[in-house]
Amino acid sequence: MTQSLDVSRRLSGEALTNFIATISATGGLLFGYDTGIISSALLQIREQFHLDTIGSEIVTSAIILGALIGCLGAGGISDRFGRRRTVMLAAALFLGGTALASAAQGVTVLIVSRLILGLAIGAASQIVPIYIAEISPPNRRGRLVVGFQLAIVSGVTISFLTGYFLRDSSWRIMFGIGMLPALILFVGMGFLPNSPRWLALKGRTDEALAVLRRVRSSEEVAQNELQAIIDNHDEQAPWSELAKPWVRPALIASVGIALLCQLTGINAVLYYAPTIFADAGFGQESALLTSVAVGLAMVCATIFGGWAVDNWGRRTLILRLLPGAVISLIVLGAMFALHMKGGAGAWITVIAIMGYTICNTGSLSVAVWLVGAEVYPLSCRGKGMSLVAGSHWGADLLISLTTLSLVQGLGAHMTFWLFALVNAAAFLFVLRYVPETKGQSLEQLEMSLRNGTFAPVHKS
């Protein structure tokens, strides 16, 4: 702990907070890269290991199963051993899983390695947003936590580019590249401080104050924040605390956004973007390059969202952008219903997908980890975020397993219209259940839960 503070002593409070958020967000980069790279690597893996469709699905989905297990297990670990150590554990799993995947000589080892990577991704999705949220000042918490989502979409985009440029190289190199950011995360976290709120929860108030002095603008701000943490302090709560009426509004808002982030179809569109573009009249190589453009659109939308969450607000951002996602999906479904392939129809399809990607990624995907990390009381924040991440990964698994069946059973046009309906339902959900959290400290949000003023009472 002392060593961590000594290493960062030369940095100002704001610079140190930025540095902490940047190193921590490397977990998001690994999250995105390891999730996305399989789409390119699988082309070679299927041929080398003679995988059939079921085998390919198992190799691909093992990482999602691991993520489900990892995010649910990380809550108790982070509560007991601390946020920083849990991130380091995730980094070690990233390193081990990547090394094993790169060296795999058989399908079984490859599946196990993907499962280990899933454990790391699940743990990272649970703990990194909490760690950043608990160390950030209220006025900058939004953009700093959204940095984690920016790292995720950047990782996905890098995986698309890597797959394209290394398409004639070994799939082992594609996997192995992930070891560098994993090493940066593991080593970097060793020099960062613990979460001041976790330290205070453990009764280590002197250490908590030492951290706050380093990451806040003045001694007075640090002292006042520590006092607010202590005033709201209670013992580490069991899982049953999440079911209590006073916590339930936070549970509904955060888990609802986590589920809708996936059920609105963003990953389904991303997974099958090359196929959609090919069906619209683009050649296979052009379809792959257009998918890279979708990835870049996600990055731009997330950068914008990182600005908007602290200027517009979390709730307002979602309510302003989701209607655009609904309209884009209606247009996309119409293109398939009218069989408009090639020419103007192809470009309308591209514009519709880009519009949907920007509006959905820039709203729900930006807010999912941020809202989950900030709405729970300190006593059960780790466990609450485990449920948020678990809901996210469970819905991801459901969408991954059913999208092709929906397309085959309903047709592409009806599938996109169904997703449009879910996006509209997401708008109504946020309008009813998700309050604005912009500019409020974590302790103020906890107090609003305790006094019953958490839920929104009027439209933004």
UniProtKB/TrEMBL annotation:
Q: What is its main location?
A: membrane
- Gene Ontology annotations for the cellular component aspect, listed alphabetically: plasma membrane
Q: Name one GO molecular function term.
A: transmembrane transporter activity
Keyword vocabulary terms for this entry: Cell membrane, Membrane, Sugar transport, Transmembrane, Transmembrane helix, Transport
Mind telling me which residue stretches traverse the membrane in this protein?
Answer: 15-33, 53-75, 87-105, 111-132, 144-165, 171-192, 250-274, 286-309, 321-340, 346-372, 393-410, 416-434
Q: Which InterPro entries match?
A: MFS_dom, MFS_sugar_transport-like, MFS_trans_sf, Myo-inositol_Transporter, Sugar/inositol_transpt, Sugar_transporter_CS
Q: How does it sit in the membrane?
A: Multi-pass membrane protein
Ranges for domain Major facilitator superfamily (MFS) profile come to 20-438
* A Pfam family assignment: Sugar_tr
Which compartments is it annotated to reside in?
A: Cell membrane
Q: Which PROSITE patterns has this protein been placed in?
A: MFS (PS50850), SUGAR_TRANSPORT_1 (PS00216), SUGAR_TRANSPORT_2 (PS00217)
What domain of life does the UniProt record list for this protein's source? Bacteria
Name the protein family: Belongs to the major facilitator superfamily. Sugar transporter (TC 2.A.1.1) family.
Name the chain's protein.
MFS transporter
Q: Which organism is it from?
A: Gluconobacter cerinus
Lineage summary: Bacteria, Pseudomonadati, Pseudomonadota, Alphaproteobacteria, Acetobacterales
